[in-house]
Amino acid sequence: MGKLISRLGVLLLFTFSTLAVSAQENVQMADGMRSNGKIYVVVAVALTILAGLFLYLIVLDRKISRFEKNEN
Amino acid sequence: MRRSWWKILSVVLLVYTFIGGFLFDVPRLPILNESIRNLHFHVSMWFSMMLLFIVSVVYSIKYLRKGNYGNDIRAAQFAAVGSVLGILGYATGTIWANYTWLSDQHQSLSSVLKEPKLIGAGIALLIYGAYFVLRSSFNDIDKRARISAVYNIFAFAMLFPSIWIIPRLVGSLHPGAPGSETGNPALNFNDIDSRLRIVFYPAVIGWTLLGVWIATLKIRLQILKDKILING
Fold first, then answer.
1. Cα(B50)–Cα(B46) distance, rounded to whole angstroms?
2. How is A51-65 classified by DSSP, letter by letter?
3. CB of B204 closer than 8 Å to CB of B211
4. By CB count within 10 A, which of A10, A12, B172, B221 is most buried?
5. pLDDT in tens, B219-232
6. Is A72 helix (H, G, I), strand (E, B) or coil?
7. Cβ contacts of residue A29 below 8 Å, gap of 6+?
């Protein structure tokens, strides 16, 4: 029981200390970008590039498989 | 196309990385600000590089034990993809450092150029560069395979002092060094936030699997080329 209480105490202390830190520092983040939703455009663009890369890989993979079939 | 579960896993994990990496809540850190999201891209490049180099050196040792020529091809192609990821890690690191060290911390250019982590990583990549120079300088296939396998073990061994040990002994601006408490107070990877971890670990696995995918393609292509060369 004593162990549990001391653990809880440490946890509480930790939470308060992190709260204190976040209250002190006013760190600039891209909150505006998130609030008007434009960040989704960036995600869409990045995902398109990723999809293109994967498509390219799949095409290459298929091509090599075809050659392997011809060789054997 | 060879259908494998890990290729699908790679796609799924990287899509998750891009969505989670851009949209999930991240800790508010001074100097780094939103650029902490680079963790899922810049840092995972190095992690994947390390994993691919481990695979490469294992194949080199296998080659030296049994003399199976296929293992020499595998070692070389895994090292090649690992080096590409390493170069990408270096390139992304320069962009990141430009904004966090030079612009925000007002470090002088000379202190950034003296940065032990950058020098160490540069040395490590150059040692792997020499591996490919060495490979291409042999006409004899057996000699090339044997000597470059031995060199690959040396190159792998040099990774540890150059990118893991020395930057941690000397003070460094880069997170993870003893000097980072003074040099870069913003981020200590020992207590990296769990909000980052839920994207970062899948990102490492996803990028590594992508590297493995590319490496297997290169290996199959090289084996095909050699077959054509032998059969005429």
1. 6
2. HHHHHHHHHHHHHHH
3. no
4. B172
5. 999 999 998 888 87
6. coil
7. B26, B28, B33, B34
Structure tokens at A69: 């079939």
Q: Which two tokens stand for residue B8?
A: 């699908």
What CA–CA distance (Å, rounded) separates B63 from B71? 5
CA pair distance B99, A21, nearest whole angstrom: 24
Cβ pair B148, B155 in contact under 8 A? no
Residues of A in contact with B30 (CB under 8 A): 25, 27
B18 CB neighbours in chain A (<8 A) are 43, 46-47, 50
Q: What is the pTM of this model?
A: 0.84
Amino acid type, B7: K
B174 and B44 Cβ atoms separated by less than 8 Å? no
Burial-class residue B122 by CB neighbours within 10 Å (0-12, 13-18, 19+). Answer: middle
Q: What is the ipTM of this complex?
A: 0.77
Does B22 contact A27 at a Cβ distance shorter than 8 Å? no
Token pair for B116 = 């032990």
Burial readout A27-60 (b: 16 or more C-beta within 10 A, e: otherwise): eebeeeeeeeeebeeeeeebeeebeeebeebeeb
- What backbone phi and psi angles, to 5 degrees, belong to B31? 70, -50
Candidate from B11, B23, B213 with C-beta closest to A43: B23
- Is the separation of the CB atoms in B72 and B63 below 8 Å? yes
**What is the rounded CA–CA span in Å between residue B14 and residue B20?**
10
Rounded CA-CA distance A34/B23 in Å is 8
pLDDT digits (tens, 9 = 90+) for A7-51: 655 555 555 454 444 444 577 787 877 777 778 888 899 999 999
Percentage of residues of chain B with pLDDT beyond 70: 92
B218 to chain A, closest Cα gap in Å: 9
